[in-house]
Amino acid sequence: MCTGGCAKCLGGTLIPLAVFGFLANVLLFFPGGKVIDDNVNLSDEVWFFGGILGSGVLMIFPALVFLGLRNNDCCGCCGNESCGKRCAMFTSTIFAAIGFLGAGYSFIISAISINKGPKCFTVNGTWAYPFHNGDYLGDKALWSKCREPADVVPWNLSLFSILLVIGIIQMLLCAIQVINGLLGTLCGDCQCCGCCGGNGAV
């Protein structure tokens, strides 16, 4: 596949993943699907905006850049018909690196939150983190330590797990584009500069 076509495919995949990550983070503000009285009682990791910022906003820009590479004009730059495309592909590696960092941020926040467990109103009558080192993951009976909000444990676990998986996929796709972008920088694109007689580099 041409490097430009590959980048477009990657960009088209990153867009829905960014939207899903954004929505998952928004839903975390409503533990158990309910509005809580005091936002201070939300888990700290919700406020780090891993899905909104990391897997969401920071991923949109690389995705749009990847989508635009296919139609990037690459003719007549410095007397080299493939120069423009090569420069564009090199730029895409920078945006891919930014996307990788954003997805990595979301992944780390999600992993920390899953291990830590949600903040909830405990059987002791206080808002706290009743779980330790992910102990609740292997023992569902421990979930009863959280009295409110209802179903907060499966709610947080499910949404942060979704963000974790999205972050992994996004990091993989951005890493692929780094390699693809470097190949495009060195070799050009096989359909580059068709307007110049079809002599673009392969």
Automatic annotation (TrEMBL):
Residue ranges of the TM segments: 12-31, 46-69, 90-114, 157-176
Keywords assigned by UniProt, alphabetized: Membrane, Transmembrane, Transmembrane helix
Keyword Transcription applies: no
Membrane topology: Multi-pass membrane protein
GO cellular component: membrane
InterPro entries named among the record's database cross-references: L6_membrane
Places the protein is found: Membrane
Main subcellular location: membrane
One Pfam family in the UniProt entry: L6_membrane
The keyword Transmembrane appears for this protein: yes
Superkingdom classification of source: Eukaryota
Family of this protein: Belongs to the L6 tetraspanin family.
Name under which the protein is recorded: Transmembrane 4 L six family member 4
Taxonomy of the source species: Eukaryota, Metazoa, Chordata, Craniata, Vertebrata
